Amino acid sequence: MTAGAFESIAEFDSVKPTDLLIADRVTTEARIVSLERDWTGIVESSAMTSTDDEHDPEGATIAFERAQIETLIEVAREHLDEIDDALERVRTGSYGTCEDCGQPIAAARLEARPYATRCISCASRRR
Fold first, then answer.
1. Going by fewer Cβ within 10 Å, which terminus of the chain is more open, N or C?
2. Do residues 107 and 10 lie in contact, with contact meaning Cβ atoms separated by under 8 Å?
């Protein structure tokens, strides 16, 4: 079940935040494994050819694809850190409390972003 799959906030309230976070963590870890597999495939296939990325018309595409996958892996790892931080907040009892103003984070926000650290007001001010 994903965070956005709830019919109502009451239904969301019956689900433990850790369940959402752990499900998101599993999905994110699987995404990282898949992206790393793709990256390895690109590197291995380009190593088997004698092309020069800088002078081959396809070279820029291969370099771009590698860089794009590296960025996606980095973003996924950062998301994993956000999830782990949220799980730690659950453990310490500070989950669902805005780190800026100390007020509760709305259930709708936590449904959309279970790893949120700020209420909507504080998050809006930071932009």
1. C
2. no
